[in-house]
Amino acid sequence: MDFEKEILKLLKKETKQDLKLEIPPNPELGDYALPCFQLSKLFKKPPHEIANYLELKIKPQGFIQSIQAQGPYLNFYINKAELTKQTIQEILKKKDKYGSSLNKEKIMVEFSGPNPFKAFHIGHLRNTVLGESLVRILKFQGYKVIPVNYLNDTGTHVSKCIWGLEHLKEKPTKDRGEWLGYVYSLASEKLGDSGIEQEIHKKIEEKDPKYLKIWKQGVKDSLDYFNKIYKDLDVKFDKTYFDSDYINKGKLIVSELLKKKIAEHSEGAIIINLEGYNLYKALVLKSDSTSLYITKDIAMAIDRLNSYKLDKLIYITGSEQKLHFQQLFKILELYGFKQAKKCYHLSYELVMLPEGRMASRKGKIITYSEIKKELLSKLESEVKKRHKSWSSEKKQKAVQAIFSSAIKFDILKQGPEKVIIFSPDKALEFEGDTGPYIQYTYARISSILRKEKPKNVNYKALEQSEEFNLITKLSLFPSVIKKAAEEYKPYLIANYLLELSHLSNEFYHKHKVLQAPEKIKQARLSLLQATKQVLSNGLNLLAITAPEEM
Ligand code: ARG
Fold first, then answer.
1. CA of 300, closest atom in ligand 1
2. Distances (CA, A) of 409 to 246, 397, 446, 538, 540
3. Taking CB atoms and a 6 Å cutoff, what residues make up the pocket around ligand 1?
4. Which of 331, 316, 498 is nearest to 416 (CA)?
5. Distance (Å, rounded) from C-alpha 140 to C-alpha 537?
6. pLDDT tens, per residue, the chain with 550 residues
């Protein structure tokens, strides 16, 4: 049962208002609380008077044990036996659908966006991990989601890399795409802002067969390299866009924008004046009639909104592109797209390593491969030590699962507006705020349930406070998912899973399960089964595997 919804129904009957409940910071203040400030404004009475009034008016009934006014809040206490039975039964019935919902909107999520001819660095990793999780969360909430990637396959980075291929005579390594990134970084350091690579840029634009061939091969090599990483991270896209496909479409859009009087001529170039919205001027066509980054984005967004009939577009990029997307959404609005107001730019901050090694343009970037190598070497020896008897295949599988959970969880547990200081040692800890800790909790529950499955459960046997805390947490899963989807915040789920793991371990340390008296044992086993299900549902939304053994 959705307790929150039921309480809101009761409140609506009494107040005729659509209200919002909060989850009190500790269970002594009730399971749900109504802050009375909104009603206070409406009825022109102090909030505590409203709370007192409602306490008298609404009689506790059914699943509600009691209702108490406390200062400006009205607190609701759910009947524990009812909460226990309803929650566990619902989880075990709905299984991997517990927490899911239905929605109609069609949403395109663009994420990852690494650049061909360059390396896939830890900034792209943050983007990719965030995007995949958001896509899964939105799908789980019933939205029609179209995950897409966008690769900038034109621009100075391309010509710089090709210049490097011709002049630096580096020997290719096994992964051609990764090697191109390396050549790019050398070339970029050598060339600086000299502009020497312009020659090559022109040759590609003029479709010189020799350079066109090198360019095509390079894009393919890069794509192969990115695809290996996506496989590693369990990430999928329905479609990949390339900016080279939008050079002409971009120019066509500019003439349309001129006709619609959205764009205007200015000193030989074409601009869109957004100063009235405090968004400066957007240059959309240079005086030599080359198009810009935003020109292609305008054309591509219009193309996407029309061909997929989207209700919303979400873009994930670094925070340095904030203005770009504000301008883009405003231009879409001026163009006449009602959806523009719903479009969303999810921006995130840098990822750094503790020593201050960071992603920068000066060639000192940390690539995905470097981080992976570092984590794998630490993990391999750890897993070998722990599981001498395992086959090497099984060990390898475990290493891969722990590696990806360590890195993904460390990224997802923090809000995107925070700079991440990624510490490989900390992310790998089995005790701590880490992915492996949650996986370990899951594996431990699995091992208990392998020994015995619950049967003939009587939920009344659950009456310890550690059990209730765990059950209350389980009952909140659907509302956490809903909020994470509506506010685009995967970190709410990551933090929920940490708290759920803590509560589950607290329960497990305090109370016997398999050695408890029969009736209690069965009830506790079913509580563990429900916990296991919710951990699995949550981990899946973060694209982290839930291992039966670890
Ligand atoms: N490749 C771009 C970059 O590295 C990000 C692409 C963002 N997407 C977009 N539609 N502009 O900055």
1. 10
2. 36, 18, 21, 12, 12
3. 110, 113, 115, 150, 152, 297, 315, 317
4. 316
5. 10
6. 788 889 999 999 999 999 999 999 888 899 999 999 999 999 999 999 999 999 999 999 889 999 999 999 999 999 999 999 999 999 999 999 999 999 999 999 999 999 999 999 999 999 999 999 999 999 999 999 999 999 999 999 999 999 999 999 999 999 999 999 999 999 999 999 999 999 999 999 899 999 999 999 999 999 999 999 999 999 999 999 999 999 999 999 999 999 999 999 999 999 999 999 999 999 999 999 888 999 999 999 999 999 999 999 999 999 999 999 999 999 999 999 999 999 999 999 999 888 755 444 444 688 999 999 999 999 999 999 999 999 999 999 999 999 999 999 999 999 999 999 999 899 999 999 999 999 999 999 999 999 999 999 999 999 999 999 999 999 999 999 999 999 999 999 999 999 999 999 999 999 999 999 999 999 999 999 999 999 999 999 999 999 999 8
Ligand 1 atom closest to residue 114's alpha carbon, by position in its atom list: 1
d(CA 109, CA 343): 10
Gap from CA of 315 to ligand 1 centroid (Å): 9
Residue 293 alpha carbon, nearest atom of ligand 1: 11
Say how far apart CA 309 and CA 305 lie, in whole Å: 5
User: In Å, how far are 209, 301, 406, 414, 450 from 134, measured between CA atoms?
Assistant: 41, 20, 18, 14, 32
Q: Alpha carbon of 349 to those of 206, 233, 346, 411, 487: distances in Å?
A: 38, 20, 10, 11, 18
**Local structure of residue 367 (DSSP, 8 states):** B
Assessment of whether the complete model's pTM goes beyond 0.85? yes
Tokens of 27: 């269970």
DSSP calls for 196-226: TTHHHHHHHHTT-HHHHHHHHHHHHHHHHHH
Determine which residue's CA is closest to atom 3 belonging to ligand 1: 113
Tell which residue, 435, 444, 377, 383, has the closest CA to residue 404. Answer: 435
Cβ atoms of 279 and 326 within 8 Å: the answer is yes
Q: SS3 breakdown of the chain: % helix, strand, coil, rounded to 5?
A: 60, 10, 30
Give the residue, out of 153, 314, 317, with the most ligand 1 atoms within 8 A of its beta carbon, to mutate for a pocket test. 317
Can you tell me the distance from the alpha carbon of 499 to that of 470, in angstroms, rounded to the nearest whole number? 9
Yes or no: say if 535 and 438 are a contact pair by the CB < 8 Å rule. Answer: yes
CA distances from 178 to 42, 118, 119, 155, 227 (A): 61, 8, 6, 19, 12
Taking the CA of residue 324 as reference, the ligand 1 atom at the shortest distance is 11
Task: In whole angstroms, give the CA distance from residue 9 to residue 195.
Answer: 67
**Rounded CA Rg of the chain:** 28
Q: 317 CA distance to ligand 1 centroid (A)? A: 7
